[in-house]
Amino acid sequence: MSTTTVETTAPVTKEDSMAPSPGKVTKRGESTPAARLVSHAILIVASLIALFPVAWLVFLSLGPDKDDYLHPGGIWSKMTFDNYVFVLQETKFFDWLQTTMIVTLGTTLIGVVISATTGYAVSRMRFPGYRRFMWVLLVTQMFPVAVLMVPMYQILSELQLIDSYLGLILVYCTTTVPYCAWLMKGYFDTIPFEIDEAGRVDGLTPFGTFARLILPLAKPGLAVAAFYSFLTAFGEVAFAATFMLSDTKYTFAVGLQTFVSEHDAQRNLMAATAVLIAIPVSAFFYFVQKNLVTGLTAGGTKG
Amino acid sequence: MTVAIDRATGKRRGDRAPKPGLGRRLRHGYQKHWYAYAMIAPVVIVLGVLVLYPLAYGFYLTLTDANSLNSARTIGVNEIEATYKFIGFDNYADILWGDTAYDRFWSHFIWTIVWTALCVTLHYTIGLGLALLLNQKLRGRTLYRLILILPWAVPTFVTVFGWRFMLADGGIINSFLETLHLPTPLWLEDTFWQRFSAIMVNTWCGVPFMMLSLLGGLQSVDASLYEAAEMDGASAWQRFRHVTLPGLRSVSSTVVLLGVIWTFNQFAIIFLLFGNTAPDAQILVTWAYYLGFGQQPRDFAQSAAYGILLLAILIVFTSFYRRWLNRNDQQLAI
């Protein structure tokens, strides 16, 4: 698939260049009908590929029997919402919801506060140890889960934080804070530092400048950091699977696995749960995606 | 970073008086920078306590023979002291050139490199192709964009299960292949097809990020450059090669680095797709997790040693990447 998409882009633009031929005038940026058709065809195929696994999951979640995924044709005739009712009433769905919410919101809150002050400090001030500090932030982002998993497990169990919300929140902060600090630094860099100087001249302390002048201006950047933390904490699997032991304290990412890892695989219920989880998060994602992408690449273009 | 101006106070550093003594310098530095240190203090504490200390501790563990049978633990009311002992660099030696080192480390290492290279290449080329398509004036391109980022919008742990249903024996993909009278591989059981499906699912999940980042990069390329190139008679390919690609360079270098780091550390997809059933399809990260938490007794020391090796590989790669970029006169944002 990769080769086809790439190769076909070349002819698309090539015809574009041949367009100003006598007889027919095509404006710049517009392509010939044939090229447009090819573009549409590729995009439609790609969209179907992107859509299908998710749509399939939704479809399977409507089949009442756990082996329905093997003969999906039968689902049409006996479509039902029983799976959803069962998941909401009989399983620990709401416990998982509670855990997930506590952990993700806690991570978001703590992470954003910490990374905002850090981002401001590295954006505005050059202090001894600055370069080394930025290097540490960068390296922290590439820690494989495996490096910290074992020692963190031991430390958390010594602190009695295994199977506790706080433990997981702190662990997630270590993964989100470095990235968010970079992100916030990028955003603070775009705020002219004449504003800081004006604040200083008017007699504000450095903290006052930060809290009263810069933070209100940085709201979009803060929002991006918050979205990023939220989505990261929501989708994390490895730490949650290892550090949360009691089944009422599973996050969704772990809870979903309990449907298959037990002796029989209740795939219909699992599909229903997956859909229930996916809908609000995806809606949230679509709501914020534009900011998220701008924020993520802003670091890339500005430095 | 070369700017030697303290932007909060507007003072110039650099052309200073002759160096005062160490004590004075410390006090002076403290007075001048105390607020900067105060602001980074929280992150330093969090990183120090939860990253650097565990890292040091983890490194210490790799020099021991710790596993779940000899570590400190509590069973009921009995507290059992840790009994593991210091064995030096034996773990590393064992992993790198021990008896079955090829099966345990090098095969996973090679597969991890192949996995990272293939996935990032696929992410980048498909993402770039789709971004170029979406950057045209097309009817319905907002709709296309919204659909195409769906794999990113839905949490990975949800979509991977969708793929598992589809790839299962008797699932929709094999039924479809059967109606076309094509061979129906055992996607989740046979080693080659396990690897194939892992790359396929990861590609599916990772393309939207690349696509959106590159689309942002494409839109920030100055349109007058294309105009000038066209005036000079550049062909479409030449415009792509000499205007588009250079314009994308700074975004590309960042997203490729991020992509390599993320893919190298990609835990969720392989872990959720196969669980512990596919020893040969495990990349180093999931393999280290398996050693430390997926088997009994849990081998903490070896797992941590794998982690340190992984980190070393990534740091070496990143340093070379940065150096290479700097030589080509580019700034890496992160």
Automatic annotation (TrEMBL), chain A:
<keyword id="KW-1133">Transmembrane helix</keyword>
<feature type="transmembrane region" description="Helical">
    <location>
        <begin position="265"/>
        <end position="288"/>
    </location>
</feature>
<dbReference type="InterPro" id="IPR035906">
    <property type="entry name" value="MetI-like_sf"/>
</dbReference>
<feature type="transmembrane region" description="Helical">
    <location>
        <begin position="165"/>
        <end position="184"/>
    </location>
</feature>
<dbReference type="InterPro" id="IPR000515">
    <property type="entry name" value="MetI-like"/>
</dbReference>
<feature type="region of interest" description="Disordered">
    <location>
        <begin position="1"/>
        <end position="30"/>
    </location>
</feature>
<dbReference type="InterPro" id="IPR050901">
    <property type="entry name" value="BP-dep_ABC_trans_perm"/>
</dbReference>
<dbReference type="GO" id="GO:0042956">
    <property type="term" value="P:maltodextrin transmembrane transport"/>
</dbReference>
<protein>
    <submittedName>
        <fullName>ABC transporter permease</fullName>
    </submittedName>
</protein>
<keyword id="KW-0813">Transport</keyword>
<feature type="transmembrane region" description="Helical">
    <location>
        <begin position="96"/>
        <end position="121"/>
    </location>
</feature>
<feature type="transmembrane region" description="Helical">
    <location>
        <begin position="222"/>
        <end position="245"/>
    </location>
</feature>
<keyword id="KW-0812">Transmembrane</keyword>
<dbReference type="GO" id="GO:0015423">
    <property type="term" value="F:ABC-type maltose transporter activity"/>
</dbReference>
<feature type="compositionally biased region" description="Low complexity">
    <location>
        <begin position="1"/>
        <end position="12"/>
    </location>
</feature>
<feature type="transmembrane region" description="Helical">
    <location>
        <begin position="133"/>
        <end position="153"/>
    </location>
</feature>
<feature type="domain" description="ABC transmembrane type-1">
    <location>
        <begin position="97"/>
        <end position="288"/>
    </location>
</feature>
<feature type="transmembrane region" description="Helical">
    <location>
        <begin position="37"/>
        <end position="59"/>
    </location>
</feature>
<keyword id="KW-0472">Membrane</keyword>
<keyword id="KW-0762">Sugar transport</keyword>
<dbReference type="GO" id="GO:0005886">
    <property type="term" value="C:plasma membrane"/>
</dbReference>
<keyword id="KW-1003">Cell membrane</keyword>
Automatic annotation (TrEMBL), chain B:
<dbReference type="GO" id="GO:0055085">
    <property type="term" value="P:transmembrane transport"/>
</dbReference>
<feature type="transmembrane region" description="Helical">
    <location>
        <begin position="192"/>
        <end position="215"/>
    </location>
</feature>
<keyword id="KW-0472">Membrane</keyword>
<feature type="region of interest" description="Disordered">
    <location>
        <begin position="1"/>
        <end position="21"/>
    </location>
</feature>
<dbReference type="InterPro" id="IPR035906">
    <property type="entry name" value="MetI-like_sf"/>
</dbReference>
<feature type="transmembrane region" description="Helical">
    <location>
        <begin position="300"/>
        <end position="321"/>
    </location>
</feature>
<feature type="transmembrane region" description="Helical">
    <location>
        <begin position="255"/>
        <end position="274"/>
    </location>
</feature>
<feature type="transmembrane region" description="Helical">
    <location>
        <begin position="109"/>
        <end position="134"/>
    </location>
</feature>
<dbReference type="Pfam" id="PF00528">
    <property type="entry name" value="BPD_transp_1"/>
</dbReference>
<keyword id="KW-1133">Transmembrane helix</keyword>
<protein>
    <submittedName>
        <fullName>ABC transporter permease</fullName>
    </submittedName>
</protein>
<dbReference type="InterPro" id="IPR000515">
    <property type="entry name" value="MetI-like"/>
</dbReference>
<dbReference type="InterPro" id="IPR050809">
    <property type="entry name" value="UgpAE/MalFG_permease"/>
</dbReference>
<feature type="transmembrane region" description="Helical">
    <location>
        <begin position="34"/>
        <end position="60"/>
    </location>
</feature>
<feature type="transmembrane region" description="Helical">
    <location>
        <begin position="146"/>
        <end position="166"/>
    </location>
</feature>
<comment type="similarity">
    <text>Belongs to the binding-protein-dependent transport system permease family.</text>
</comment>
<keyword id="KW-1003">Cell membrane</keyword>
<dbReference type="GO" id="GO:0005886">
    <property type="term" value="C:plasma membrane"/>
</dbReference>
<feature type="domain" description="ABC transmembrane type-1">
    <location>
        <begin position="109"/>
        <end position="321"/>
    </location>
</feature>
<keyword id="KW-0812">Transmembrane</keyword>
<keyword id="KW-0813">Transport</keyword>
